[in-house]
Write a structure and sequence with these properties.
The structure holds two protein chains of two kinds.
Chain A (H helix, E strand, L loop, with lengths): L1 H5 L17 H5 L4 H29 L10 H36 L8 H23 L13 H5 L4 H28 L12 H33 L12 H18 L2 H15 L6 H14 L15 H29 L8 H24 L1 H7 L3 H31 L5 H28 L13 H31 L43 H7 L2
Helix pairs in contact in A: 3-4, 3-5, 3-17, 4-7, 4-8, 4-15, 5-7, 7-8, 8-9, 8-10, 8-11, 10-12, 10-13, 10-15, 11-12, 12-13, 13-15, 13-16, 15-16, 16-17
Chain B lengths: L1 H35 L1 H10 L2 H27 L2 H31 L14 H9 L4 H44 L9 H25 L9
Helix pairs in contact in B: 1-2, 1-6, 1-7, 2-6, 3-4, 3-7, 4-6, 5-6, 6-7
The chains are: A mainly alpha, B mainly alpha.
Amino acid sequence: MSTVAQTPERVMPDRHYLNDNYGIRSWLLTKDHKRIAILYLISISVVFFIAGIFASLIRLHLLTPNGALFTPDTYNKMFTMHGVMMVFFFLVPSVPAVLGNFVIPLMVGAKDLAFPKINLMSWYIYIVGVTFAMAAIVSGGVDTGWTFYTPLSSGFLHTNVIVMVVGVIFAGFSSIFTGLNFIVTVHRMRAPGLTWGRLPLMVWSNYATSLIMILATPVLAITLILLGLERGFHIGIFDPKLGGDPVLFQHMFWFYSHPAVYIMILPGMGVISEIIPCFSRKRIFGYSFVAFSSIAIAVFGFVVWAHHMFVAGISVYSAMVFSLLSYAVAIPSAVKVFNWTATMYKGSISMDTPMLYAMGFIGLFTIGGLTGLFLAALGLDVHIHDTYFVIAHFHFIMVGGMVMAYLGGIHFWWPKMTGRLYPEAVAKLAALITFIGFNLTFFPQFVLGYLGQPRRYAIYAPEFQVLNVLSTAGASVLAVGFILPALYLTWSLKYGEVAGDNPWRATGLEWQTTSPPPTHNFHETPVVTTEAYHYGSESEEEVRVVP
Amino acid sequence: MAQQKEASTFGMWVFLVTEIMMFGGVFVAYMIYRLKYYEGFVAGSTSIDVTWGFINTLVLICSSLTMALAVSAAQRGVVRLQKIFIIFTMALGLVFLVIKGIEYHQKWVEHHVPGGTWQTFDPQDIHQDLIKEGKTPQAATEIAHQTEIFFCFYFAMTGLHALHMIIGLILMTWLLLRVSRREFGPDYYTPVELGGLYWHFVDIVWIYLFPLLYLINRTHGKI
């Protein structure tokens, strides 16, 4: 590293992965995990804004009790397409395929992921999936809800369910390949000295996510294939006319889709575990607890699926077991929240943009998590099932949690990805706007749900209007909060201040190489001699000197 | 190189885990309905011609053997043997698919193809067999009706398996091309080995499908 140490700080390296070669072919045929991450970043941002437009239209429609914009049928299509696009095409790939793809090989000190070609293939498969989904949307839309429940989806609706389902299956294969790549990379490609106990927590949480991806996603694939067969050829495994059971579809669907909730939050927790120690200048509190709580969440996540089905006619005894197990998930989640706050305690906290997002995450995730316990309680769930309470709960986790973490991570690693800093003041403002807009949008929905406004209805009772107007107003604030980063991050690509190798003085191997990194990540294979997050120890001086 | 081979083999095993989970989903559904409609499953299973299924099982076991021999030929770097054994494996795979086709055709002729698309499901023969066994006409009608969901599983499971066989054949074609370019030898034979793992996996799935679909209580408890 001696040559690197002598380069003056805040200078772009001459050669890096972005200027190693040029032209569209060098991007579309790249096997570099960093470029594939950028490809994912661009494509999921497009998906995010399309799905966001659906969300805005939903909120606009709900300005008035009788619905301001659409017929009920169109409204059904709106929330379905919002859900499908956000869940399968944005949230699932967001942190793993963009940030994970970019930083995991760097964090483990490898030249690339274990299977670069499969990594590229996963992006193409994702694009095929998006194409199918867009085709389904453009040719009339789908109105089943993102859950595709039978028999509604298999026999009663005449929209493009099969096309959409094929798109989702492709997206699933894409995430299977990402997960497979991560697992093999973490097992086989760690740098010398990088033991499991020294792995950054981002790697641990993405490893746990990958386990879920490879174990749960195939079940979604077979479930949706059976749904497709039933719809296309009336091979009726879920068809009551032949003695089939539609509730079996729900079991199989949630066997994937509940663990998928953790696919959508665990990587975000990993990002937070990176940001908090860095901007508190402290070691993470209870490293092994945070690491193993990720695995615990992944494991528990597989045995709680029927809490989505308490009112679907499952037996009381199984409902009690699933309720109890659902409570168990709260334990590892709480371990994480407590350890993050304990890390911040007496730390020298600096309120940079990533830290603002991380602190937003902790607060909103806690609210989202605690209201999850309400829904896991059998008696209460009967009352608030399928109301806006559920909507508010999972948006607190998915938007307040995962999207916040994703944005925090984007800001945290943006200097590493592009070599440039974003304008800090505007970024802080955007983080604040997002936080305010988010709360204004979704907090009223808890009240609405508790008072009994059902989800997925195009109209509502007039007494709910005030809270709905609040929520819609919040949504427009939130939209500003999301559009701002898209603008100033793009701006910073050209005009941003040069970041230097380690603008946050962070630990971790990804900060020891140049920003942006060279195509093969490191000029020399790094050797790890310390634990992760050695902030505040003697060796931090060393970290400051060596860029 | 050794690290790469290790990583690839590990990756293949992880991939096979995802395959197990995928087949696992439909196996679980099968199990639930088998417990629910046991008589229908017995009647449907008994109506299938077990000979073809048995021959197909033998064919696949032989193809696993030739596949393993192909891997060992690759390890030793004997190009001619690699070619021969891969071609044998492919031929056996094709024989399997042809027999499967014959069986599907039989189902069509016997009106055992389920589903509303063709509207041809009409298991008269099963109904008559049940009457011969001494079931009341009413019970026979009900059980014959239950066989439809059995055949749903039969086609879904064997169809998914056949799809995997076809993918396997494509893999073998690709391996054959690489073999004829003399790419494999004692130093590098990972693709052959991984292709072999996949092939064996698909065979093993059949080893489970055969008893589950063809051999449900055929002897009616009398061995």
